[in-house]
Amino acid sequence: MINYNSAVGPFSHSKNSSVRIMYTVIATLMPAVVFGIYQFGLHSAWVVLCCCVVAVLVEFGCLKLMGRDPKACVDGSALLTALLLAMSLPPNAPLWLVSIGAVFAIVVGKQLYGGLGQNLFNPAMLARVMLLICFPVEMTRWVDPSPIDFSGNQIRLPTEWLTVDGVTSATSLSEATESLYIQDLFLGMQAGSLGETSAFLLLLGGGILIKKGIIDWVIPVMFLLGIAVPAFISSWIEPDTFLTASTHIFSGAALLGAFYIATDLVTSPTSLKGQAVYGVGCGLLVWLIRSFGSYPEGVAFAILIMNAASPLIDHYLRPSLFGSGELQKSSAKSASNSTSSK
Question: How does it sit in the membrane (predicted)?
């Protein structure tokens, strides 16, 4: 277990508990999840269900083995981790792959560090990176959306909607030379992971979290600026080589990462200055990996790298503490100057 003091009291308290926060975040994610199932078919629903069930059961078993209250498996943390992992997987991912990812996220990403609140890395992203490295073929099989047809006062289910197979397609991030329609990216009419395609629904959910005070605006805004500024400059200089800022932001897992993953209360800095540096670092790394790396998507890698840097950021950028040595020295110096002047 890692021991470091990122901040010291006194603290103000709200009515939010960790359980309430977890289920609030889950609730704001559900529209994007349901839309992903609508877009990609019935198998994607099995991906979500399998991931959630396996994660909760593994959490239950880990708590039992460690002699802790097994009821904590339904506190929402395992469910949220599973949901974020499922949203980052291909909609046609085989269930054995989903199960391996869920087990790895809970056991290695969370419980080996000591459980809730102790993990250094985001468990869902740790599991996604592991799957991508170990099973690159299965993790890069994308399919085109095949939504249900409601036209003509009839409901028509596409053949692909009821099967695992679909029309394979490249993601928008790998189509660097093709013109992409912002409307399609914004509404989710693109190939990609199960729950990251609808920019509109992710923005809506993220806005609700900021409005409710679950997350602060600093990390999401600085994250997106960290991507947008270098993307705008590079695409302006060499438009045939680099993707535009809008393509970077509205495609891939940029919005999911900015609002739901980088803002993880456990793995992100506590001070506002630290959060700003952390957010910019995440966004800049995403742009660098997408533009010059071997992977078209870099959100998971970028967040894990900045997770590792989070304690260091907090150490150097945390605010002065009430009653700290610096303030005491300053007060003593002021008192000494006042006495000598008299």
Answer: Multi-pass membrane protein
pLDDT tens digits along 50-65: 999 999 999 999 999 8
Alpha helices in the chain (DSSP H): 18-40, 42-65, 77-87, 95-107, 123-134, 182-187, 199-211, 218-237, 245-250, 254-256, 272-292, 299-317, 325-341
> For residue 327, is it left (φ>0), alpha (ψ between -120 and 50) or beta?
alpha
Number of domains in the chain: 1
Kindly give the interhelix angle for 18-40 and 77-87, rounded to the nearest 10 degrees: 30
* Residues near 221 by beta carbon (within 8 Å), at least 6 away in sequence: 279
pLDDT per position as a tens digit, 126-183: 999 999 999 988 887 766 666 555 555 555 555 555 555 544 444 445 444 344 566 6
> Is residue 9 one of the residues assigned to a domain?
no
List the domain range (segments joined by +) for residue 97.
Answer: 18-319
Residue 73 domain flag? yes
Hunting for tokens 């999840």 — which residue is that?
33
Whether 71 has a pLDDT exceeding 90, the answer reads no
- Is there a domain that residue 4 lies in? no
Q: Compute the radius of gyration of the chain from its Cα atoms.
A: 22
Is 333 part of a structural domain of the chain? no
pLDDT in tens, 74-95: 888 999 999 999 998 988 889 9
CA 329, CA 320: separation in Å to the nearest integer?
13
